[in-house]
């Protein structure tokens, strides 16, 4: 009995995995296991023999069973220890750096422009980028034969053969939003319209898609003097220095009189500095809204008058942030975006109260 016991306990102790342990259990105390077979032999013994062998075999069976259970726990613990060792993780290590996106200069400047004009009571209006030729041209007093149509390098959409209606265009400026806003809200009106515009043109300062912001004020007694004040107020807030403007008489079909506006700058040392020096930089078109344009927008020119202006958003972004090539704005080069982009939590310096 002692040999039997040390044999089985030895084998249990030597088992290195659960499978081996299970095989041992079957061959020791399973139905046909050695100990089970021995217990069956009890019936053939004399009562005296049985009285000795019975309890001894039972005790042996219990001991083998509990040795197996203990070994099983031991193996499981060892396996867990092994896993913990290989899956160990230092939670105190710093995390991997995560790439953060940036706000595109066009978005940033649009925000800045909107904030400054909002301070002056302007609301934001938007219109479609695919526009009818009525809104893009006719309603703005640019008739079919007018040279301005040709000058704008317009992208036309396609009409089916036999369809003689004038094709839609990709809007060439934000001015059509003037008409749409007049139609929708009537007078008085004080809006800016930022957005994308399209012209077939491509070089360092031109891309086929770019951004403009239109301004429109309609009231009973608006004037060029107010226009000048609004623009000087805007440029001074935008560039963070006092900026003088110079008005030069110019022609745009949708205004009368019309003016091109220059801002004071210096070109010394090969860089443009706004708000100093005695040079001028052409920056925008403007004027008093043409009576025909008011009429096209459903507003009575005998009762109301307005001023309007339009300028390039990308252009003033390049000036303010020293970005040399417009084409880079739209190349989606991550290095450029990281360099010229803005942090999502940076508040534009032009926002009120900052
Ligand atoms: N729409 C003109 C352009 O894209 C810019 C412009 C000039 C807008 C004069 C105006 C304005 O509102 O009064 O070239």
Tell me about this structure:
The model has no long low-confidence stretch (mean pLDDT 93). This protein folds into two domains: 2-86; 105-353, Bira Bifunctional Protein, Domain 2 (BirA Bifunctional Protein, domain 2, 2-Layer Sandwich), CATH 3.30.930.10. 41% of the residues lie in helices and 19% in strands. The protein has helices at residues 2-14, 18-29, 34-40, 47-86, 105-119, 133-136, 147-151, 176-185, 224-239, 291-296, 313-321, 334-340, and strands at residues 123-124, 130-131, 169-170, 189-198, 209-219, 245-250, 255-266, 273-274, 279-289, 305-312. The chain has 354 residues and is of the alpha+beta class. 30% of the residues are buried. It has twelve helices and ten strands. The protein is rod-shaped. The structure holds 3,4-dihydroxyphenylalanine. 3,4-dihydroxyphenylalanine binds at residues 173, 175, 214, 252, 255, 285-287, 308-310.
